[in-house]
Structures are given as structure tokens and as C-alpha cells.
Amino acid sequence: MTFEESWHAASRTGGRELTPEEARARDAEGLPYAVVYRAPGREVPLGVRMVAWRAGCVDAWAYDEHGRRTAEAELRLRDDAGRLLVRRLLVRRYPDERTGQDAVDCPRTAVECSADGTARISRQPGGMRGDSLEAEVEVADGDLWTARPGFDDWPDLPVADALPGWVAARLDGEAAGWRWEPSRLRGPADFDRVFRPGTPIPGLKVLDPVPCGSLRLPSGVLAVACPDTGEGLSGVTVAVPPGTYPVEAAWVEVEEEHWGSYEDVAAVRLRIGDAPVAAWEMALGPGDDTLRLRAGEAFGFGTDAATGAFGDAGAWDELRDLLERARWRGSPEHGRLSDSVAGMHLDGGSLGADLAVFCTGGDGVYPVWVGRSAAGEVVRVAVQTAFDLDLEA
In sequence order, which residues have a C-beta less than 8 Å from that of residue 335 and are 6 or more positions away? Predict the structure, then answer.
């Protein structure tokens, strides 16, 4: 067992190593420190506990021999009684050595507890891509709370990679109170509908889609983000075969009671393949977990400039810099920028990659939807823009 100043759970890296005396002093002062549990001959730690009393939290992780997190726990300190609330537990079950920690089809079970004595249990045998078995249950006080331990009183391991007995008993018990919930990753709508002329959609007349140029993706990783927001690349990426793909805008006629009839762009998409879409799913960024979504919520890219873009992730920073220069009239790069129905198209020239900029219709967070064929291949990537489309009617 060793002590370190900090711990990054994903990369399994810590800060400066601490002596036991330094760690004890930090514990007494409420400053953060990590306890790293190791086994002889094993490079990857068995588990890690990150303690931060001043912030009122303890986070813990268990790792397998491949460095994948098998269990995670979040505990929160109650100042009134010196007790820790077991706020969240997550246990993963890897079916084989090849399944990655963040694989959307990795089986897992999550438990989220509240101080009022209730918990939500969600079991996902098919991972985020599959449906989940869920229930809200009452939790005994002894299962919900644990006493705040002293520096020398922690258990041998930070978190067990098996579910607590009270959770396992409920999962193995009667089916009463349990319900199957559809995957929060899957989109119920067919986003191709708004690109099919004549498709009936309430309040809209779908016209012919409009070409918006082509996009070169040499790295095989598509990034979707706002090119004008200060945070830069948001982390929403989609792996596709390297190649050049057409960009299209869904052109529709809108009928509104007060504004009358007008034409506008309702969505943009990148056509990766011609096969029909068998299922749509939400693209995720690093750390996005569908268990944390509530009804009507979605992950996506953020924009403060009502703008989004498709581009090559490997050349994103260079493309963004080129776009900024090309916007100045008279600059040598201005000729690389051309208008499109959706927004603008930037020819990346020697970068070997391009940028397709589109207007979102407003600021906020915009989900990115990935259409997969029956074989599981990515064939579309779409973003809904200005309208609250009723694509399920």
C-alpha cells in the first residue's frame, strides 16, 4: 500500500508519492490524498481510494489485471453525524479480455442511493446499448450509511468488485416492482425521414436534401463540435473508415400559424454508407454515461455560437485555426471557404481534411446521432438543428 497526492482513475496515474506521515497529516487537515493498494508482481493496482474530507467525498475504484475498472464507489460525508452515504456503486462484468472498459456493450449494474432511504438499481446485461432492468427500492439504514473511518481504520480494499448482499438479494428475488427500460443510448426516431422528400412530418413538408460539399476524414475519427466555442473539441467523436463522404442538409418547408410558410434546414448529416439504418444511437464523449441521463436529457456537443461542425479529429485544431484565418476577407485562405445551405464549407487543402460548418439555430447542447446498419457499421451521422422534429409520428 502506498500514498499519493492525487489519482486519475481513467489513466491510473497519481501525483507525488507521500510518506505515511504526510498522508496522515493530510487526512487530519482534510486535504486530498490517495491510498493505492498493490499486489507483488502486479503492475496494475488492485484498487485505489481517493479521500478528500474537506470536500466531503471519498471515491474508490477496483481494477482487474488488465487495468480495467471492475467496480467504482462514491461516498459522501454527512457533517451532522460523521457518517458516509454510499451514494453510488457501479460494477462491471467483462465478458472477455478484449472488451474495453468504456465499451457500450459491457454488462454492468449500477446503484444510486439517496439519503431519504431509497435507491435506484439498474442492471444492464447488454451494457448501454441494451435495455436495463430497473427498480426503486427502500434501503435499510445500515446498508445506506457507514461510519467515517479513522486514518488506520479503512478496510483492506477500497471497494469490492461484487455487488453488496442487499443488492444481489433484490436482483435474485421476485420480479415484482422491476421494469424493463429501453436503452437510453438508442434513439427512437428515424433521422433519415427528414431527408426523404414527401415524408409526412407534422408541421413540415420535406423537400429534396441539399448537398453541402464533401468531407475528407483521413484519420478515420470524425469529430462533431462547435468550431467557435473557446473550449475547442468537445470530445464527441465517431470512428468511421478513412475516406471522403458527402454532407447533406435536410431542406424543409415549415408551416407556422404566425410566421406563415418558409424554408429552412432541419438537420445535417454525413453519409458514410448507403445501407439502410437499422438503429440510431447517441454518440458519447469521454465520461458520458447514459445512467446519469434523466427523461428528455441527452449528451452532445455544446455551443455558445449557435454553430457546429463535422471535421477530422486528428486535424481539428489546424482546421479551426484555418477557419479563423479564412473568414477574413483578403486573407490568402479566404478562397478556401465557401457558403453552403447549412452554413459554410472549408477546404483544408494540404491538411488532407476539411470542415463542414453548420448553424444549429441556437446555443446549448446538441446530440449527435449515429445510424448503424444491420451489420453494426456506421452509415450515417446526423445532428438535428433548428426544429423540435416529431419524427415518431
Answer: none
